[in-house]
Amino acid sequence: MTFVITQGCCNDASCVPVCPVQCIRPRPGDPDFTTTEQLYIDPASCIECGACAFVCPVEAIHHDAAVPAPLADAIGMNAEYFATDPLQDVAPLPVERHRLPSEHPELSVAVIGAGPSAMYAVEQLSEIVGVSVTLVERTPTPFGLVRSGVAPDHDRTKRIGDRFSRVLRRPNVTCLFNVEVGRDVSVAELLEHHHAVICAAGASDDRKLGIPGEDLEGSVSARELVSWYNGHPDFAERHFDLSGKRAVIIGNGNVALDLARVLTQPASAYERTSVSDVALEALRRSAIEEVVVVARRGQAFAACSTAELLALSKLPGVDLLADAAEVSVTDDELEAASVGGRSAALARRRAIVEAAAKRTPTAPRRIVMRFRLAPTELTGAGDGTVSAVVLSRPDGRSETLETSLVIRAVGFRGRTVPGFPFDPSAGVIPNDSGRVLDPETGEHAPGLYCTGWIKRGPSGVIGTNRTDAAETVTSLLDDVAAGHVGSPTGDLADLVDLVRTRQPEMVDLVGWQRIEETEVGAGRASGRTRVKLLTYESLVTTALRT
Q1: Can you point out the beta strands (E) in 362-430?
Q2: Coil, strand or helix at 17
């Protein structure tokens, strides 16, 4: 008997330090920690204490006798990990306790953004005696991709927001939501009132395909569509054409699979979730019967996780298919795609795709995995809308797929944050372990730090930001100890008054709590997890009501 980590693992490694026998892998600092699909428990070493399940913020850990039936494959996946990499070092990881030096007993930090990377930084900083944190977020609500990026049917993953909510309620955390840096307050002004500023602005731009026709109507980014069905106020009232029978997704990462799942499942699968009401109505009217997921490389290099692909193969009423001519894998490809000798996940993914290639379609809807195809052009109808995508094979042959909806799921990019340097080629803030670097001198820009996707690029999952934030926080505290951090010249209360003067619709902690109570209450009344407010006007009106 053992505990098992299942699909939905957020990789934040909260479970690792509490394990008394250190049987969870990989751990922060292990070579494959930053590339692993999820964490795993060694069934031969687990003593069934349950400490890991107690601290898991997304409820992804279960006793093997109580694993939900749809997640039963996780039992084998945990065992397979240790079959190829047996547990060896069981010495506990050192526990790092941060303290401010006696000669610097107070530290104030402003954090720009309120997504997972920001929240992990705020959590770690606000645990330190003498530290105060000001959180500045452009939208009226916090938590970034937890609110507007995680698929609405992944409620357990969204529960990490409960952990972040507790952090916001700490007395040494101040919330300035619906406040935009560069419009309502400058980085220079934040530095005048804080010892340091951490940018955690994420990656809010999209990578382009760079092909003709990419700007036709009906060619959209994954970020736009995901934000739309999750009710982000920037996109909640957008219209997307779901009237065609086929949609084509370029890219095969987890975001692409989320989109394929949302577009092929019946709308009834989302009626009890937090999906946007606008999107839910559009899904009810959707005519999409087939979603084609296109990848440039072979299946050995698929960017999706095994768990997400496995879940796709088990969707009721949806066939997962593949082209038998495209799914072959050479030994060289398997070796090249294997990370740190991890071949079990690749073998399992290969089995899923090969089964898809042999499957006879019987369901009313289908998801088709395509490999070794590169989009070369989007062609349009006379009204300026997408009518087809042209795909090129390695041998030079081309194939045209008719479609009215092409979704680019080829990655995100950071964008310039006023007051911070920016590397346009990499789409990140230049930095060294989170210390922002002046691109001209290569020296640390005093008081400026960064974390998350704007620091390292769009990689990893939610929990990856925990270790990333820890690195940045350590760099900041090391600089404090070394006397490299200046002192604020203004009082925080004065800054709050200044911001409120410029932005009378600023949302504070109490205002955000009103939004939470309204959305969750509306969800409870209708049998849903929450009913989201979809516009800035409705969010702000709710937050500021007396």
Answers
A1: 365-370, 374-380, 386-392, 398-402, 405-408, 412-413
A2: coil
